[in-house]
């Protein structure tokens, strides 16, 4: 499958600290691709670099065959790359319905936003029940769903998710993971960083394992789940 979004030889960091060292990652169109690894491995940094929130010091980012290394973040949103950052970050005073509406702020996403909001309520029935509630009053899981739905309202071609299960009760996390598959099946490509390695490998088509700013392993998720080194290091098996 052709890569929709990829990093090639990507190097990036913060001030003098280099975090990403020659990272090659390819997210194929129509896939769920997971990025896993221990704390501080550079997973969030990679997500920021893909979304254009962090500049590369070397290497390239390609999207749908084009070099977008120098596209700033807002242009990448326009290109069709949406990042749902860690921590959910919804505006607490906005209702669920208004949050979805502002998710469709891009000119190309405005048309048909009401139908799209309706399809978000089908995907996340909990949000329909709470459409007039302020986002700040939702539970953590509901806020995560709202952050995902807001990202989808921009009609992205690729959705990048940073730790969507962080802080969620297991049942709620399962619900979120289940929806990710539905989103992929509707044609949205997904890149996901997860601390819950088992859950991420269970839903992903393929995965990259990062350590210390480098990719140390890569393959179909099923293969990684069976890899003894991965099982010991990340799955506690
Ligand atoms: P975690 O699961 O803990 O978020 P991660 O794999 O996502 O881990 P990153 O958040 O990408 O890792 O962090 C990689 C390294 O970059 C870490 O050493 C971290 O301390 C450092 N780092 C992250 N953000 C910043 C920042 N804004 N300024 C300076 N250093 C940072």
List descriptors:
single chain, 237 residues, alpha/beta, Rossmann fold, 2 domains, 6-stranded mixed beta sheet, 4-stranded antiparallel beta sheet, 10 strands, 39% helix, binds adenosine-5'-triphosphate
What does this structure look like?
The chain has 237 residues and is an alpha/beta fold. It has two domains: 132 residues, Rossmann fold; 75 residues, no CATH class. 39% of the residues lie in helices and 27% in strands. The strands form two sheets. Strands 6-7-8-3-9-10 form a six-stranded mixed β-sheet, sandwiched between helices. The site of adenosine-5'-triphosphate has 12 residues, from strand 2 and helix 1.
In short:
Helix content is 39%, strand content 27%. A six-stranded mixed sheet has the order 6-7-8-3-9-10, with helices on both faces.
Question: What is the topology?
Answer:
Elements lengths: L2 E12 L2 E12 L3 E6 L5 H9 L6 E6 L2 E2 L5 H7 L1 E4 L11 H8 L3 H4 L2 H11 L1 H5 L10 H14 L4 E5 L7 H16 L3 E5 L3 H7 L2 E6 L2 E7 H5 L2 H7 L3
Parallel strand pairs: 3-8, 3-9, 6-7, 7-8
Antiparallel strand pairs: 1-2, 1-4, 4-5, 9-10
Helix pairs in contact: 3-7
The chain binds adenosine-5'-triphosphate.
Adenosine-5'-triphosphate binds next to strand 2 and helix 1.
Helix content: 25-40%
- Give the total of domains: 2
Total helix count?
11
Major β-sheet strand ordering: 6-7-8-3-9-10
Report the CATH topology name of the largest domain: Rossmann fold
Bound molecules: adenosine-5'-triphosphate
> What would you call the structural class?
alpha/beta
CATH superfamily of the largest domain: P-loop containing nucleotide triphosphate hydrolases
The largest pleated sheet is described as:
6 strands, mixed
* Low-confidence regions: none
Give the distance, in angstroms, between the N- and C-terminal Cα atoms.
31 Å
Rg value: 17 Å
Average pLDDT taken over every residue: 91
CATH class of the largest domain: Alpha Beta
Beta-strand share of residues? 25-35%
H/E topology pattern: EEEHEEHEHHHHHEHEHEEHH
**What's the β-strand tally?**
10
Global shape: globular
Architecture per CATH nomenclature, i.e. the level-2 architecture of the largest domain: 3-Layer(aba) Sandwich
